[in-house]
Amino acid sequence: MQVGFTRLSPEERDRRIRLKSLPDKARGRMYLISKCIREKTDNIVIFLGQGSDELTQGYIYFLKAPSPKVAAEDSERLMKELCLFDVLRADKTTDAHGLELGSPHATTLCLKR
After folding, report:
1. Phi/psi of residue 49, each to 5°?
2. HEC string of the chain?
3. CA-to-CA separations, 85 to 55, 78, 80, in angstroms, rounded
4. What is the tally of structural domains in the chain?
5. For 43-82, what is each residue's pLDDT tens digit?
6. Half-sphere exposure (CA, 13 Å, Cβ side) for 92?
7. Does residue 33 contact residue 90 with C-beta atoms inside 8 Å?
8. CA angle 106, 109, 112 (to 5 degrees)
9. What keywords would UniProt list here (predicted)?
């Protein structure tokens, strides 16, 4: 039996609405990991490596870039877009379980935006 929004607590309703605003598959995995962390530990602050691959050109396709200049330009573009997508998604899914997200590689960049 599926429970409708009318029978949910206000907190649960807000949590489901926040999750529905996230469009990709990664949200489900991050949500479940956050849930597990919250249920099995006392940690409320977690650190993620968001931005490290973009910053250091750690993705495999950087090896096939036509030149180092093109790779650097793509790395800069990815870092700029990181705050709009990856960090926002991660923040919403961890927030659903009352966890605080720390993303050292991306935090400074996102604050400048």
Report:
1. -95, 25
2. CCCCHHHCCHHHHHHHHHHHCCCCCHHHHHHHHHHHHHHHCCCCEEECCCCHHHHHCCCHHHHHCCCHHHHHHHHHHHHHHHCCCHHHHHHHHHHCCCCEEECHHHHHHHHHC
3. 16, 10, 10
4. 1
5. 888 887 777 888 888 888 888 888 899 888 888 888 888 7
6. 21
7. no
8. 145
9. ATP-binding, Nucleotide-binding
If you count them, how many residues does the chain have? 113
Q: Which domain holds residue 79?
A: 5-112
Q: Which token pair is 29?
A: 């995995």
Structure token digits, residue 105: 């590689």
- Distance set, CA 65 to CA 1, 70, 80, 98 (Å): 52, 6, 19, 40
Please tell me the pTM assigned to this model.
0.56
State the Cα–Cα distance between residues 106 and 79, nearest whole angstrom.
8
